[in-house]
Amino acid sequence: MAAIAAAVFLCASLLFVSVLIGMRLTTSGPEMLCSSSACRDYLDLVKPSINTSIDPCRSFTHFVCDGWERDHVFSVRQRQFSEVVERVRESTFTLEIPVKGQNETQMAAALFRSCDDVVHGRSDHLTLVREFLRSAGITWPQVPENPGDLLYTLLCTSLRLGWDAVVTFTISKTPLADVLVVKPGSSFPFIYDKTAGFETDEGKRVYFNELKRAFRGDRRNVTAKMVSYEDTIGVESIALVKLAEAYSVSERNGSLTRAQAFLDAPDAGLSEARWIAALSYFRINFTGELNLVTRSPGYVKTLVILWEALGEAQMHSFVSWCTVQVAALYSNRQLILNYYDKDSHKAEVYSDAFCVSRAMLMSNAALFAAYTFQVLRSDTMVDAREVTLSVRRAFRDRLEKWPHYDENITVVSNWTSLDVPFRSFTHEEIPTFARGSLVDMDVGSLVHNWVLLSKALTGTPMENVVSELYAVYKFRYHVLPQGEGDFQLMPYALHFPMYEGSLPAAVNYGGLGAVVGRALGGLFVDAYRRYGEPASAAVLADAKSCLLDGQFGAVDSIEDLLAEAYGVGALVAAYKLAAPADNSVEGMQAYSSMQMLFIAMCHNKCQGSMKGNKDPECNALLQYVPEFADAFQCEAGAPMNPSRRCQFI
């Protein structure tokens, strides 16, 4: 009898918990039901992902994402991006591309196809890559017979090859004088991310040995001295860490200042005469004195200090090692797989992003021309613009009520204009928004295309280019173009499930609206850090510190979380105005409109099975959002409704 009583008690307890959670999720939802094809697709996508046995007030990430993680290797963002890329791939491979006289769309398509051929093993450029590296003075893994000229190598890998792993050089021409601009390497984040991602020394050694085998070249030269793993990693552990620290705080959007430390550093063997001699190899001649400038003086100074401390030979070896890792991604499928730890699934999705980002260097919009025209022909743009404007209005209202608001600090240059945010979706931009004087691309040779493009872009300001490269690689939906005072949506941002015109407003605000809020938060943080009074800077620092102390573990990027945190209030406020007229996805009508907003917002963050700790994805921010706790009736003190909340605007 006791056993039966215990069993009955257990069943009753479980039933009580289920009913309690169910009561939280059955607050009166919208009466209008959406049964369109998009809503049916959304139901099929999201409902299996939700784990109703989890209390959303304990872990909203697990509540929304458990099913997705169980059934998928990739994240929701990665899957969405792959679907867009598949449409791009179809359009580029059916597009007729002439050998000469290509327009921007054809150039971008040719570059993408040549990259796609390498990724999928239809092309192998390893021999050509080795030749180009040697032209830059890189003989890795062979130790140079004569001391390497580091300055020449840095200039060549940037100005001629586009494999600027450590520094990037561009030439800014003005009516008064030509200026050489130096900044952190456009590929530096790829090098650092790869190095930081190794979990074991053995994995890193396997990666190193595969590169050493591939780039060794002539094995008949048995007397050639080769670099060792220990020496390479020894220098890397010093140089890469120091540069990464400087990179993380470098002012990439600041004003240009003279890079005197790089121009005149006797202990590193650097002088204006040496610079002028090195630049002459590239037929770059300056009238008057050499004007070397940077927006990242701390990064440049760190590079010079390392050059002086380690010596030119060791720094040349380090730069060679970094550059080889970048060049390997242009070589063949085997080395691409090596970069992605032999994981073909991971390599596929990230290589798609790699190829898209390279083709977008040609033009931000041209590669997506066919896809974008389909978007423009639909009613999507009208609704998407209204979602964007409503979040902007809400953000501005909240900003102007913030105690530290300063009307002299510009967060957004024109709150009512959407010209910059939707730049990628205008008819005019698609054929004309090229990066400069471009040249015809070769469908069959990624390496030749990349070298030609790098030379053509020598005089192009690279700040926006680099931000787009990394944004695509991280599957982000917006960038913050330098000097625009606004954000710009990526061409793939208006694709299901991030946005679809016939979906309920809760879903679209949880997708596109959340992107807009995060972008505005990023602009706000950047503006008030740079121009705000000490009091506002202290508030930002306190908010960041509070997020870092969160109970759910570390996030991938605290800066992204901070930007999102400062935008989420505007997102919720904007949606509240739309909620009364909103409908519901048929099959999910048990959830209220506000609950669906947070479900959509969180589901877009769901990670696949390859990711480690996923708790912070949704919990790290939503635990501090009072409207979330209200929507799910979380008790005070519950994990998703802590007694101490971080404060934003």
From TrEMBL:
UniProtKB keywords: Signal
One GO CC term on file: plasma membrane
Domain of life: Eukaryota
A single BP term in Gene Ontology: protein processing
PROSITE patterns: NEPRILYSIN
Transmembrane segments annotated in the record for this chain: none
Pfam families to which the protein is assigned, alphabetical: Peptidase_M13_N
Domain Peptidase M13 N-terminal: from-to ranges: 56-402
An MF annotation (GO) of this entry: metalloendopeptidase activity
Alphabetical list of Gene3D superfamilies matching this protein: Collagenase (Catalytic Domain) (3.40.390.10), Neutral endopeptidase , domain2 (1.10.1380.10)
Signal peptide: 1-22
InterPro entries: MetalloPept_cat_dom_sf, Peptidase_M13, Peptidase_M13_dom_2, Peptidase_M13_N
UniProt-listed PANTHER family: GH26575P-RELATED (PTHR11733:SF241), ZINC METALLOPROTEASE FAMILY M13 NEPRILYSIN-RELATED (PTHR11733)
Protein name: Peptidase M13 N-terminal domain-containing protein
Taxonomic classification: Eukaryota, Metazoa, Ecdysozoa, Arthropoda, Chelicerata
